[in-house]
Write a structure and sequence with these properties.
Layout (H helix, E strand, L loop, with lengths): L2 E4 L4 E4 L2 H12 L11 H12 L4 E2 L6 E2 L2 H12 L4 E2 L6 E2 L2 H12 L4 E2 L6 E2 L2 H12 L4 E2 L6 E2 L2 H12 L4 E2 L6 E2 L2 H12 L4 E2 L6 E2 L2 H12 L4 E2 L6 E2 L2 H12 L4 E2 L6 E2 L2 H12 L4 E2 L6 E2 L2 H12 L4 E2 L6 E2 L2 H12 L4 E2 L6 E2 L2 H12 L4 E2 L6 E2 L2 H12 L4 E2 L6 E2 L2 H12 L4 E2 L6 E2 L2 H12 L4 E2 L6 E2 L2 H12 L4 E2 L6 E2 L2 H12 L4 E2 L6 E2 L2 H12 L4 E2 L6 E2 L2 H12 L12
Antiparallel strand pairs: 1-2, 3-4, 5-6, 7-8, 9-10, 11-12, 13-14, 15-16, 17-18, 19-20, 21-22, 23-24, 25-26, 27-28, 29-30, 31-32, 33-34, 35-36, 37-38
Length: 567
């Protein structure tokens, strides 16, 4: 039967399909390929590559093939048949060529060598993909963005970013992944498997890349050097992140506040401040943490492990950075110097906090009032004034405190310990701060000066109270009457006038007092104690104000002048 086929350039009829194809190339200027075959059947199969004819369709799916043999091999994916078994291991394959390639893993044979570099491959397809690294060819372009790839498989995985598809689901938890390899690595978190062991030490890893990076810790190789400073890194990604310290680039911005970060991981951790998420829970107690590193440090509280020992003394630490900081106590090193004054610090963080004294920056603002703080820990403690939380409880009594330091100072009241002794007199104190304030009685130092008048004070709290005499401020108002006071303790004492409360009773008589100080003064009537002695004569007094009045007899000071005119 004659086949009629029309061309726009001519009209020609042919009795064989192959002649149609040959004639068509005269109009399209398509060159014949240079392949030749021994048998007509091979030529017919080959020509289907040019025509696109696939006459052998799979009955199980919608795939079709240009050879019957290809269909038979494909059908094994449905039947599970793998007739080609490896003699070296228990693996089997549905195609002979796959077995041939697999055997090369046992023999080490890599017959396909790259002419541009010294790499070689087990498969020809792997070589073709590799050569695109040299040519720069990326034939597989994404239709959703402008990215292109040198492998079709890489493109398919990339497209899942646009579709959100994660076809590889974990059967142990609800996580899913874009790549099968990512799932396999994740499953090792459940199984605990670490198949990549270091030959130099006893460490093992879940991923091969983790092992390769670890090996560099033995060799000391750091192939990625910074062009701005003398630092080097074992990973290119680490170098790119480091270079942002020089450029100032912070590409990862928080959508809740104005902070930005040089690493995506740092942003994710920061965002937990807004969400309150603490995904790392301690198995020994009910504490949870924002980062895995914080959890690992905390767990050492339970184990008591302090792996970082000082070579100069017998101290040991839970973290390496704590050891480094401690070691500077021995060397005297202070590498972080302030550009505004002559102070220097052991850590960069300490310098940043100090510089806020010069800049006045207080980045930690309270959401309940208008106060702001230089340190986050100061804000946390301050917020307890609003919430009333006192997380530090005394084991000896029912008192609780806002800070750990307050609890430690309080506990000394149970032990009676006063470890801080004055070198000038016999007094001792349970707090170092108490000793420092006391020593000002000997030195006469009054570091807290009033900006409104010429008065100065030994303690900051005394200055704050004094300032109220200029402002007239009395923030502590009585709820029973219209009186107000500068200090909270004054209000508490005054309130007892309304309630009649006298909580401090004398053990020698039936008198009771509103404050502990009043009781102590009264008890001197029973003991005869007069602790305040005059330095000019030997007269002693029970109360300090009695001594001050007496001293005026020596100085001649008469501070109270009459404002009335003489008649």
């Amino acid at each position: 039967m004659e086949v009629h086929f029309e061309f726009s350039e001519c009209e020609a009829t042919f009795s064989e399909t192959c002649r149609i194809l040959h004639h068509q190339r005269l109009h399209t200027e398509e060159k014949e390929c240079d392949k030749t075959f021994k048998e007509t059947s091979d030529l017919i199969i080959h020509q289907r590559i040019h025509t696109g004819v696939k006459p052998y369709a799979c009955t199980e799916c919608d795939k079709a093939f240009n050879q019957k043999g290809s269909l038979l091999i494909h059908q094994r994916t449905h039947t599970g048949e793998k007739p080609y078994a490896c003699s070296e291991c228990d693996k089997a394959f549905n195609h002979k060529s796959n077995l041939v390639v697999h055997k090369r893993t046992h023999t080490g044979e890599k017959p396909y060598a790259c002419t541009k570099c010294d790499k070689a491959f087990k498969r020809k397809g792997e070589l073709l993909v590799h050569q695109r690294n040299h040519t720069g060819v990326k034939p597989y372009a994404c239709s959703e963005c402008d990215k292109a790839f040198n492998q079709k498989g890489t493109l398919l995985i990339h497209q899942r970013i646009h579709t959100g598809e994660k076809p590889y689901a974990c059967t142990e938890c609800d996580k899913a992944f874009k790549r099968k390899g990512e799932l396999l690595v994740h499953q090792r978190n459940h199984t605990g498997m670490k198949p990549y062991a270091c030959s130099e030490c006893d460490k093992a890893f879940k991923e091969k890349r983790q092992l390769l990076l670890h090996r560099m810790s033995h060799t000391g190789v750091k192939p990625y050097s910074c062009s701005e400073c003398d630092k080097a890194f074992i990973q290119k990604g680490m170098l790119l992140v480091h270079q942002r310290n020089h450029t100032g680039m912070k590409p990862y911005s928080c959508s809740e506040c104005d902070r930005a970060f040089i690493q995506k991981g740092m942003l994710l951790v920061h965002q937990r401040n807004h969400t309150g998420m603490k995904p790392y829970s301690c198995s020994e107690c009910d504490k949870a943490f924002k980062t895995k590193a914080e959890l690992l440090v905390h767990q050492k509280n339970h184990t008591g492990v302090k792996p970082y020992a000082c070579s100069e003394c017998d101290k040991a630490f839970k973290r390496h950075d704590q050891l480094v900081k401690h070691h500077m106590n021995h060397t005297g090193e202070r590498p972080y110097a302030c550009s505004e004054c002559d102070k220097a610090f052991k850590t960069k963080d300490e310098l940043l906090v100090h510089q806020r004294n010069h800049t006045g920056v207080k980045p930690y603002a309270c959401s309940e009032c208008d106060k702001a703080f230089k340190l986050k820990c100061e804000l946390v403690v301050h917020q307890r004034n609003h919430t009333g939380v006192k997380p530090y409880s005394c084991s000896e009594c029912d008192k609780s405190f806002k800070t750990k330091d307050q609890l430690l100072q309080h506990q000394i009241s149970h032990s009676g310990e006063k470890p801080y002794s004055c070198s000038e007199c016999a007094k001792s104190f349970n707090r170092k701060g108490g000793l420092l304030v006391h020593q000002r009685n000997h030195t006469g130092v009054k570091p807290y000066a009033c900006s409104e008048c010429d008065k100065a004070f030994k303690e900051k709290r005394h200055l704050l109270l004094h300032r109220m005499s200029h402002t007239g401020e009395k923030p502590y108002a009585c709820s029973e009457c219209d009186k107000a006071f500068k200090r909270h303790d004054q209000l508490v004492k005054h309130h007892m006038n309304h309630t009649g409360e006298r909580p401090y009773a004398c053990s020698e008589c039936d008198k009771a007092f509103k404050t502990k100080g009043d009781l102590l003064v009264h008890q001197r009537n029973h003991t005869g104690l007069k602790p305040y002695a005059c330095s000019e004569c030997d007269k002693p007094f029970k109360m300090k104000r009695q001594l001050l009045i007496h001293q005026r007899s020596h100085t001649g000071v008469k501070p109270y002048a009459c404002s009335e005119d003489m008649i």
